[in-house]
Amino acid sequence: MPEFKEALDFPRPCDHLTEIPTAFWAQFPFVSLDPAFDFQKVIDVLQERIGFMPLAQFRYAPEWSRDYLVNAHWALYCDNYLEGFHIPFVHPGLNQALDYDAYDTEVFEYCNLQIGIGDAATECFDLPEGHVDYGKRVAGYYFWVFPNMMFNFYPWGLSVNIVKPMSIKQCKVRFIMYVYDESKMEQSAGADLDKVEREDEFVVENVQRGIQSRFYQTGRFSPKREPCVHHFHRLLAQYL
Ligand SMILES: [Fe+2]
Q1: Which of 194, 126, 200, 118 is nearest to 156 (CA)?
Q2: Can you state the angle between helices 227-239 and 74-81, rounded to 10 degrees?
Q3: Rounded to the nearest whole angstrom, what is the distance from the C-alpha of residue 78 to the centroid of ligand 1?
Q4: Which long-range contacts (CB under 8 A, 24 or more apart) does 83-89 make?
Q5: 103-135 pLDDT, tens per residue?
Q6: What is the pLDDT of residue 179?
Q7: Over the range 33-54, which residues count as b (16 or more CB within 10 Å of their CB) and which as e?
Q8: Percentage above 70 pLDDT, the chain
Q9: How many A from CA of 201 to the centre of ligand 1?
Q10: pLDDT value at 98 more than 80
Q11: What is the DSSP string of 41-79?
């Protein structure tokens, strides 16, 4: 700071510019004004599964990115994202590309992972030898990070979803797309994300109406299809 030579006891620690906690994964910065947990724990999980992808070549694609306004509480949107139950009923197109019985989940400390297994016609990851999923036909890695972020990796790139609460009955979902190989998009499980999103909105908005019924009760979780929803609710209970 110029012209401060005569100032006594300057600078004190509180005179410095504010430093915002930031973590980096490849070229992506993650910022939090008040971190509730160490984000490196999430990065380590992402790196183990996705580190083989050419992240440096991922290009932000505004032409594919867009926002959706959903008339539902943000946590209901996350609930729906976190379970595989609804795929055959709500997403018949997507279900054709995925092997529903091979659907798998993995729960970590502050994030979880749903693994989509593709059929013979679906574009799958070219996993390197030694990868934890080597030998599987993985079509999509669906990472959710507590409380409201999703990182969906496909053989063509990445779709980031940020679920922003707007009111108790409305949220805005931002789809931020990063593409590195557009040629793989058409045969991918992430081929028509806009259609899948609208199908999800339809059911989530109906759940918003349904939970307002006087007959609505909480329910149990399916151990096979809903460990990720259960994980979300445990973290919510812990932080609330
Ligand atoms: Fe869905």
Answers
A1: 126
A2: 150
A3: 10
A4: 83/222, 83/225, 83/226, 83/228, 83/229, 84/114, 84/225, 85/222, 85/225, 85/226, 86/203
A5: 899 999 999 999 999 988 899 999 999 999 999
A6: 96
A7: eeeeeebeebbebbeebbeebe
A8: 100
A9: 8
A10: yes
A11: HHHHHHHHHHTTS-GGG-EE-TTT-EEEEESS-HHHHHH
The predicted model scores a pTM of: 0.92
Mean pLDDT on 174-195: 90
Q: What pLDDT is recorded for position 218?
A: 86
**163 alpha carbon to ligand 1 midpoint, in Å?**
14
**Residue whose C-alpha is closest to residue 117's, from 97, 93, 89, 91:** 97
CB of 30 within 8 A of CB of 52? no
Ligand 1 midpoint to CA 224 (Å): 17
pLDDT, average across residues 10-19: 92
Cα–ligand 1 centroid distance for 81 (angstroms): 6
| 72 CA from centroid of ligand 1 (Å) | 14
| CA pseudo-torsion sign 145, 148, 149, 152 | positive
Centre of ligand 1 from the C-alpha of residue 94, in Å: 9
Query: What average pLDDT score do residues 141-168 get?
Result: 97
Give the position of tokens 């990720």: 228
